[in-house]
Amino acid sequence: MLRTVFSAAAEAQHNPLIPGIPDLIWSAVCFIALLVFFWKKILPSVQQNLDARAEVIEGGIKKAEIAQAEAAAALEKYTEQLAEARAEAGTIREQARQDGVKILNELKEQAAAEAARVTASASAQIEAERQSALVSLRAEVGSLAIDLASGVIGQSLSDDAKAASLVDQFLADLEKSENSAKPESVN
Amino acid sequence: MLFAGTYFELNRVMLIRIITTIVIVLVFWLATRNLKIVPGRGQSLIEMGLDFVRVGIAEDLLGKKDGRRFLPILTTFFFMIVAMNLTGAIPGFNIAGTSVIGVPLLLAGVAYFTWIYAGLRKHPGKFLRNALFPPGVPWVLYIIVTPIEVLSTFIVRPITHTLRLLMNMIVGHLLLVLFFLATSFFFFEAPGLFKLFGIGTLAFGFVFTMFELLVAVLQAYVFTILTAVYLQLALADEH
């Protein structure tokens, strides 16, 4: 049996380190066939497929990047618009406040002017009434005094000129005594 | 034997090689017939195998550009050796296509001329000088260094490259033959209780078949990566 083992091992017929020519030829045939097959057929198609895959992946990444950039731009735009709107609102509020102050001031001025006008007209009216009262009082006091005086001195002061001068004299005296301010001196 | 006596004499190993070659072509042709960007199961598997060589060996050692340049040779080496090694553990074939010196010697020779070609092409004139007279060594030492470099780089390297693969496969084959013939002997010819030894030898035969599967892939990887390393050394800027 062992002899069979050795004869099986010796199937290579001679020293296994020395190649037979058919051995080399068939090795070369197989190698060249496989080399050409891998070189010209398999590797190019696989490489092409890999490139296509890389392109798809890169395309996807690029697409995502673009979308992200767009989103960022939109966000920036919205933020900007928001800030603008805020600033505008602030301006409007400030304007309104200023307008309010202005209106208030105007109203105050108007009110003050109106008040001044009312006061002025009132004082003018008072003055006019005082004047008319003074005039009528002077006439009444004049005739009253003449009546009184005629009664006292018993003579008719029919002469108007005399009477007038007398009244005037009287009133001047009256005013003078009034200025020295004693009500009993009037009597 | 077909074509007996001619240079195209076909024995069992040659037939196994041819069948293996046809199987490789069929498998890869069918698997890459309809490549898709999103791969299916079969395509993923094939791509994994091709990527193992492309990324794990070629691009890793040689970089993207040179890796792609020498990828056809490295890919062919790896898949040819793997398939021809595996036939040693496949019932019916029972011998590795690489366990006769033709394939290891041819492939080591191709690797040898490829890396010398690559070196001469990359550093014309300087390649041999740098390989034989390593820069930075005092000139007196060249008396010792240069013969060593000649021997190790240009003579021993292709021989070890060949023999490492060949011997692994021959020894693996002999081990399996020994175990299974012993099993057959113990079961059918040994007397009485000696038959029980057959169980042990059968178990060892099974274990070593598994081991041969590992060795088959490992040796293909080693052979391919060594080729890539030789190329890398030849292409390196500084030797």
UniProtKB/TrEMBL annotation, chain A:
Q: What is this protein called?
A: ATP synthase subunit b
Any one GO MF term held by the record is: proton-transporting ATPase activity, rotational mechanism
Q: Which residues form a coiled coil?
A: 61-95
> Gene3D superfamilies recorded for this chain?
F1F0 ATP synthase subunit B, membrane domain
Where does the UniProt annotation locate this protein? Cell membrane
Q: How does it sit in the membrane?
A: Single-pass membrane protein
Entry keyword set? ATP synthesis, Cell membrane, CF(0), Coiled coil, Hydrogen ion transport, Ion transport, Membrane, Transmembrane, Transmembrane helix, Transport
Q: Which family is this protein grouped under? A: Belongs to the ATPase B chain family.
So which domain of life are we looking at? Bacteria
Q: Which InterPro entries match?
A: ATP_synth_B-like_membr_sf, ATP_synth_b/b'su_bac/chlpt, ATP_synth_F0_bsu_bac, ATP_synthase_B_chain
Instruction: Give a yes or no for keyword rRNA processing in this entry.
Output: no
Q: What does this protein do?
A: F(1)F(0) ATP synthase produces ATP from ADP in the presence of a proton or sodium gradient. F-type ATPases consist of two structural domains, F(1) containing the extramembraneous catalytic core and F(0) containing the membrane proton channel, linked together by a central stalk and a peripheral stalk. During catalysis, ATP synthesis in the catalytic domain of F(1) is coupled via a rotary mechanism of the central stalk subunits to proton translocation.
Task: List where the protein spans the membrane.
Answer: 24-43
Q: Which terms in the GO cellular component ontology are assigned? A: plasma membrane; proton-transporting ATP synthase complex
Cross-referenced NCBIfam families: ATP_synt_b (TIGR01144), PRK05759.1-3 (NF004412)
Pfam families attached to this UniProt entry: ATP-synt_B
Q: Which organism is it from?
A: Lacisediminihabitans profunda
How is the subunit organization of this protein annotated in UniProt? F-type ATPases have 2 components, F(1) - the catalytic core - and F(0) - the membrane proton channel. F(1) has five subunits: alpha(3), beta(3), gamma(1), delta(1), epsilon(1). F(0) has three main subunits: a(1), b(2) and c(10-14). The alpha and beta chains form an alternating ring which encloses part of the gamma chain. F(1) is attached to F(0) by a central stalk formed by the gamma and epsilon chains, while a peripheral stalk is formed by the delta and b chains.
